[in-house]
Amino acid sequence: MALQSPIAGLKTITGYILPEEQAVQPNKDDGLESEDEEEEGQPEFLDMKEMNSVSSGGNMFKSLVPTSKEVSILVGKKTYKVEGRFPLCDPWWEVTCTIRLGRLKAFVKGYPFYRLRTHLKSEGRSLLSLFLTACKAQADHVKMFMDWLPTDRRVELVNVLDVLQEFEDSSLEHEAVAQQLKSSVNCSVVWTHVKAASLYPGIMKYLPTLLPGQYLDIIKRARIEDIPETSAMDEDPQNEQRKTNVLSKLEELINTNNVWKLGFNYIMFKELHLIRCEAKLEAFKLCDLFSAIPLLQRNALILYAELKKHCRVTGSTYITQEMLVDKIFSETGADGAWAALHFLVTQGVLMKESTKVALRNLLKYEKGIAECLTGLVQGDPWKIHLDVKEVLREAQIKRLRAKACEKHNATMKSKDDANTSASAAENSTAVFEQLGIDLDQPGTSSMVHNGETPSCDDSENTTLTIKEENLTSDSDSDLDIDPSTIELDCDQVRAAEMMCANPVTVISGKGGCGKTTVVSLVFKAAMEQQTSDLEEVQKACEDFQNDSHGSSNGLALDVHEEKNHSEKSISNEKSVEVLLTAPTGRAASLLTKRTGFTAYTMHQVLWSFMTVDKDRSGNPQDWKFSKVRVLVVDEGSLVSVQILHSILSMLTKHAQLQKFIILGDVRQLPSIEPGNTLYDLFEGLRRVRWAIEMRTNHRAESELIVRNAGLISEMGKKKYYKPLDFDATIDMTNPSAVPSDKRFIFIKISSDNFSFDLQEAILFLLKEAPGLKDHILSQFVAFRRKDCELINELCCRHYSNHTTKTAKKTFNFQVGDKVCCTKNGYVTDYDKKETSLADIRASHNRAESQQDDQKKEKKEKKERLCNGEIFFIKDDVTKSVENEKNKMVRQLTLDDKSDRQVTCNYKELQRECKLRHSWARTIHTFQGSEAETIVYILGDSPAQNWQHVYTAVTRGQKRVYVVGTEYDLEGAIRKRITPRNTRLCGFVNTKVGQQDPLTTSASTQRQAETTLNHSFGHSQSTPVASQTPIRPQMLSSTRPSCARNLYTDKNGEGDQTSNISLQDDMAFSQAYSWSPMDSCDEAGRVQNENMTELSNHVDDALLATLSSSPNESSRGSKRTIAEDIYSTPSKLPKQTASEESPMVSSRLNLLSLSSPDIKSSRQLFQDDTHSHRGQP
């Protein structure tokens, strides 16, 4: 039957899927979806409430949109070849679908409706045979059964088990065959589908359209109906009842006026315990259910869809009620809109506060983040006592020594080469003369000049005079560097102090300002300090153990127990205490390289919590992140409110979190999901001075890039434009060679024929531009997908000498291609399956953990590939499958050029991660990553604004090309940005920022006097550096630490560190009154530029003054920042060991005669009373 659709060009047909093998043709595009038909992706990870619901028996269905297939449908006597997303393609289904006729075949609009074929006539026997074959029954058994079945017997598929029972009862020789056939039917998926169709016809008809992703997983639940009650004895009866009743409840909703409930995730979660099951407004209209819904609920669906669209498009987390009503006024009318709003608020779907209306989950995420931060502020404080200036200064000295040695080695090599060249030149002068070559400029001069160390600025009036004998390769510590000549970045010092003192710290700054460097230095120093403290305590205990006066009263036993406990903790998988995370895999990889800590993606942390075993209360068991005390989040502008809320919630509840640090650049593009996390936290914590902007660039090669980025930000916020500071401009109407020493280049193209000129510009750059010969260190970025597709095609031909797609329009991946994952997924790593145990043992260097690693490998067989990770195809092999004839499997080996390789099945890789060529990426997808050379294709899209331009150019570390027109560049910078209406900043300011700093400081000081802690607690699993020892288990922060208080005066009273910190905060509040998102005057910008320029030359200046006196060094300094503005509390003098202990040990004051807490100190002599604290 074929009906003409009301929409022009569309036709609705109802027919049977033909059983021929050629009728079902998968779209051989690797199961990929075309961009115009791709379903809107759902969030991949659940929030904390949803995770807890899954643990307690909630229903979560796997979401997988069916791939496009071509089938043949018989309608009357006419056969249609139709391409569409058919979840079921078996010949016993009757389908109804709306199609658009094409020249060779038809295309389905939406999804088909299904109904099980009944009243089978002549074709019944053939369908029954096909059905048993689809159940994977043995061919000879099927033949025996079909031979027994009478030719005139009509069998419906729903009655097949009854007929098989008759077959079994007919003869003893049929009994075994019949049982095998029944077993095959009962265990098959196709029988589950048939059974679901007979019991729940409404689900089979409408759910493919209403819930296309979860449809197949939902109908599999029909198998649960057959589970005997005795098999669920160990299960919660209430949870089992939920599972078995979910299909019947869905069927009831569809067949009543309550089908509208499927359109609201919260109602489905509350009433049916279904997680992330929500039908779209368009789906109701496509399956003709919308008109049957009552008017109030129809209007509610319209309002709900409009609010979700508003949040998705603008990035806001709320909307005013008046604006929301105005948006749907034309469809519902004023009364209908207000009634729908009231209805959804009453149902709990929306939250309304004053005039603000928000989706329930978004409001919960923002409030939850503020509450988690409040818990950190009000919880047990952890102050890390470090002299941060000394830590930063030592790091700077090490870097200067390395730089000086590198320059010295280069100079010596140049001299050796020069001498060799001079000797060769003398021997070959006659030859050159015979050839007529002019030798006015000897080669020796050129070679020495090219190898010389660049001289400092003439204004410095200093020279680098380091004795050569002090620059030996085996010892660079002989360099005499005066620490007083080391001038530190005041922003870095202040940021380090914030991290040590505050429970929450927000650090913003452009790339190259040293955000991650400061984090790594602070926590490496803290770990080294607590390791040293523990070793000294243990040494003191051993001294007393060997002393005749203290060896027989329990101390030896205590030390032995701690040693055994320490060894036991090391033998197990080391838990993580300082957790470094990033929102993307590429950002996490960069964070690992820069800090030395093992960084994880935030999704990895969430996934580990979702998959770890939990007890009945939902608490994770043996979770590797259960000991986390510090959470560091890099690239905070990319973090969504849901992800941050989930991470903070699980770490505050199921770990030992005491510090939270988020890094990023508030000027960059925010997350594509609703919310403005980094900016809101920065602004919300400015009042208490827990947020800082780091302004000085420390990358000399990116100085021009950073300066232009600041200019883009300033012009964008002030809505004006002036030409950027390009150091080269190439006009494509008359292109010239690009100088190799230029860093910020404008490739100017014509606007008359943009696409053609863009292609010519790309080809020109690929052939001529410095920095693009190596596609490993370079990257193209663009705003639009179509520009990326063009660039990828050109780059594929240039770098790999082939096209991105084959003649059949399938993706063409070959060895050497640059590719990336476009969604998060888990794949089987075939190399790791064989070598992972050896790699794990080698990396962890502890044989005791072999059993734990084996158990872990059995449980986790998948390798996670993250969205945005870039790889290069190293190998492409097609192998035959063992034990399966004529079956081949294609495997790709991916190499990220950072010591990571993954060999995986190509089909699995495409299904899970959607591999794409990645010479060009969009700005959003490359955000969080960097490359030495960036080519930014500006494009002519009017949707681009200054944040896109800013984010694109700041991806470059050494060189940036901007390709476009001056008109488009000006338009993007001047374009007004639609503000994101969010509430996180207000919640943080109310819950955290409004607390009285004096009260907080005093409370912190009182707790610090009794609970001062220098250590990290339990064992740390994150590798910091190869020389860092594995630390035994330390003490909890809620008890007195074994570490000595370095800030104790002669009277034994704690130093007023909190008050000093507060006074410093007050002084800092006057110096740091600038906000990165506020308008800044020109003078301030110039000053910042001067500071940046000064920082870029400070290394050479310091190297030049190493042999100078301190007075000369101070006169030659270019920094003019007042000391009283950026000063930090000076380190109090360290007490000598003799003042603390008669045994000349700095830890013996922890050894008490009788201790009420075995964790806080060592008991020298037993006390039978234990009635009071013994005095040492």
TrEMBL record:
The keyword Secreted is annotated on this UniProt entry: no
Annotated catalysed reactions: ATP + H2O = ADP + phosphate + H(+)
One term of GO molecular function: hydrolase activity
Positions of region (Disordered): 21-43, 842-861, 996-1060, 1107-1176
Keywords, ordered alphabetically: ATP-binding, Chromosome, Cytoplasm, Helicase, Hydrolase, Nucleotide-binding, Nucleus, Phosphoprotein
SUPFAM superfamilies per the UniProt record, alphabetical: P-loop containing nucleoside triphosphate hydrolases
InterPro entries on file: Coronavir_polyprotein_1ab (IPR050534), P-loop_NTPase (IPR027417), UvrD-like_helicase_C (IPR027785), WHD_HELB (IPR058839)
GO biological process: DNA damage response; DNA replication, synthesis of primer; negative regulation of double-strand break repair via homologous recombination; regulation of DNA double-strand break processing
Extent of Low complexity compositional bias: 1145-1155
Domain of life: Eukaryota
Record-stated family: Belongs to the RecD family. HELB subfamily.
Function recorded in the entry: 5'-3' DNA helicase involved in DNA damage response by acting as an inhibitor of DNA end resection. Recruitment to single-stranded DNA (ssDNA) following DNA damage leads to inhibit the nucleases catalyzing resection, such as EXO1, BLM and DNA2, possibly via the 5'-3' ssDNA translocase activity of HELB. As cells approach S phase, DNA end resection is promoted by the nuclear export of HELB following phosphorylation. Acts independently of TP53BP1. Unwinds duplex DNA with 5'-3' polarity. Has single-strand DNA-dependent ATPase and DNA helicase activities. Prefers ATP and dATP as substrates.
Protein name: DNA helicase B
Designated gene of the protein: helb
